[in-house]
Every structure is written in C-alpha cells, then in structure tokens.
Design goal:
Layout (H helix, E strand, L loop, with lengths): L1 E4 L5 H28 L8 E7 L2 E13 L8 E9 L8 H15 L4 E5 L11 E2 L5 E2 L12 E5 L10 E4 L4
The protein binds coenzyme A.
Coenzyme A binds next to helix 1, strand 4 and helix 2.
Length: 172
C-alpha cells in the first residue's frame, strides 16, 4: 500500500472511499462536504492524502485550514476531517498510517496545531489530547457529554499554553 497526495483526477476515487466508509446514512453529506472543501480556495492550504493498493483507493484523509480568534494569521492551524477507510480494510492500520503521514507532512510544512472532532477512543492513540481543557473552543458548541471528542495536537513545541481561543474556518 502507498500513501500519496491526491490530485484533481483522483476526485471520484476519493468520494467513493468516503461514500463506502460512511455508508448510506452519513455518506452523501460527507461526500458533499469533501467535494466542497477540495474546491474551496479558502480551505487552502489543504492536505488530501489517498491510501492506495495497486491503484485501488482504500482510505483518504483531509486536513483543511482553520483560524484561531486572537491569533488570526499568526498561528498555522488545520482541521482533520474527514478520515475514511473502506469497510473491508478497516482495523488494519490504514487510518493510523494516514494520520501519521499527514502529521509528518504538516509538521514539515510548519503547521503548528491540528484539531479534530472525532472518536475520543481513537485519536488519542495518535497523539491528540482534549482541546477544551487546553483553551481551545470549537467552532460550534459541543454538548458537555461529547466534550472529549474535541481534540488537538501540537506539531511544534511551545504552542500549547501560549495560544488559545475559538476555532473558525475562513469564509466558505
Ligand atoms: C475510523 C476509521 C477511519 C479508522 O480507520 P482504520 O484503518 O479502521 O483504523 P486503524 O486500523 O488505524 O485502527 C484500528 C483501531 O481503531 C479502532 N477504531 C476504529 N474505529 C473506531 C471508532 N469509531 N471508535 C473507536 N475506535 C475505533 C478499532 O477498534 C481498532 O482498534 P484495535 O487496534 O484495538 O483493534 C475507519 O474505521 C472508518 O473509516 N470508519 C468510518 C468513518 C469514520 O467514522 N471516520 C472517522 C470520523 S471521526
């Protein structure tokens, strides 16, 4: 299996992975979200990685640009969403490899903070920590019982503790 940056001609593969991973319930909404983000200039710079085996798409991860109030344009932040692995290849480490490779590339390009709203049992395995208690408010209010789903990871030293505020996405 190899992980590569997706290119515009990969779009149908990317959307197929999303549709399969999220199923009939959430799939259509996620497909629209991904299509929109990939074509939205304000989501850039973005990172879209595709996991492939012999040309067959198995997984996809997307990171898009975000801003933090009080630190607009002075802190480089992204949101991880969505992460998807096709059902027949789940639980074989593909999701983890996509996260790891994404974080490696983002770190190398100077991104400081990565946020995710996701499964609180899954993302801490890959270095994410509860974001609320570190001073980061989510874009939309999160019910108390799901507070631990809002997570962050610093990719550069000295950012956590110095930066705090509310996340927002540039005009979309
Ligand atoms: C979540 C998802 C991306 C994980 O990818 P993956 O390749 O299956 O995950 P990995 O192989 O890296 O990790 C597997 C481990 O994560 C756990 N895991 C997978 N999905 C999980 C979930 N929703 N909540 C908690 N743990 C989960 C598995 O139980 C497994 O644990 P184990 O190692 O103890 O057996 C994949 O299951 C998926 O596409 N799910 C549907 C879409 C989705 O929910 N996306 C995430 C949105 S936040």
């Amino acid at each position: 299996m190899k992980i590569k940056e997706s290119i515009p001609s990969d779009l149908s593969k990317v959307l197929q992975v999303e549709r399969q991973a999220f199923g009939d319930d959430q799939g259509p909404e996620i497909v629209d979200l991904v299509k929109g983000l990939l074509s939205d200039p304000s989501a850039r710079p973005l990172l879209s990685l595709l996991a492939e085996d012999n040309g067959r798409a198995l997984g996809h991860i997307l990171f898009t640009r975000a801003q933090i109030t009080n630190f607009i344009d002075s802190v480089s932040a992204v949101i991880l969403a969505p992460l998807a692995v096709i059902p027949e290849r789940q639980s074989r480490g593909i999701g983890g490899r996509l996260i790891k490779e994404g974080l490696r590339r983002l770190s190398a390009s100077g991104v400081e903070l990565v946020f995710v709203l996701g499964h609180p049992e899954y993302y801490p395995r890959h270095g994410f920590k509860p974001a609320g208690e570190l001073g980061f408010e989510a874009t939309y209010p999160i019910p108390d019982e799901h507070a631990d789903a809002w997570m962050v990871q610093a990719l550069q030293p000295g950012v956590i503790g110095k930066v705090s505020g509310k996340l927002f996405v540039p005009m979309r």
